[in-house]
Amino acid sequence: MAKESLSEQAYRLIRGMIVRLELTPGAVVREDELQEQLEIGRTPIREALQRLARDQFLVVIPRRGMIVSTIEIAELSTLSRTVRCTLGMRARHCRSLEANAQSFG
Q1: pTM of the full predicted structure?
Q2: Among positive and negative, which fits the CA dihedral 35, 66, 8, 25?
Q3: What are phi and psi of 61, to 5 degrees?
Q4: Which long-range contacts (CB under 8 A, 24 or more apart) does 92-97 make?
Q5: By CB neighbour count within 10 A (0-12 exposed, 13-18 middle, 19+ buried), where does 84 fall?
Q6: What is the pLDDT of residues 37-87, one digit of tens each?
Q7: Fewer C-beta within 10 Å: the chain N or C terminus?
Q8: Which of 44, 43, 40 is CA-nearest to residue 8?
């Protein structure tokens, strides 16, 4: 298994902070604070923040910095339905695999 790069690690950690609302919607994102908190250097943090902006977790405000994107209730509802549907399909697939394995065992 490939080792996770510092940029990928920073992305995963910061995204987690956003999802868990440790970085709240509308909050200003400070690179220096993230560097200190995550103990990761400037370049990987910047790369992660740029990726998070592309993925719409952050909003870039020219000459001001970045803020955490707001979450609309309608988006949460859609996301929730998508997750439930996906988990349901995966559960059915796992049960099918288990049943096939038992029939061969």
Answers
A1: 0.68
A2: positive
A3: -115, 110
A4: none
A5: exposed
A6: 999 999 999 999 999 999 989 999 998 899 999 876 566 566 667 778 888
A7: N
A8: 44
